[in-house]
Write a structure and sequence with these properties.
This protein is mainly α. It is 89% helix and 0% strand. The longest helix is centred in the middle third of the chain and has 87 residues. The chain is rod-shaped.
Length: 98
Amino acid sequence: MLCRMPDERSITEKAQDRRNERSLKASADSAKATARSVEQMLRLSKDQLGASKAQVELTRAARADAEKSERFTRTMAWSSLAVAIASLGAALAALFVR
């Protein structure tokens, strides 16, 4: 039976330790990259939310402008109808007054 000193380690144990250290470092690097990606996605999501809010406000403003335009157009149509009726009345009066 071989007797080893307590702090003597086999070559395979040392190699396994090095593999474990490399694996831990790769895992840590991967975790850091994932954290950076998640932070970037969070920033992009916040930017997208801001853009969506701005789009909603623009849509509301456009709707309000469209309603004002519709009211104006309706008023102009009724005014034009009134002028047309008045013109017809004047034309008929001119025909009978002669």
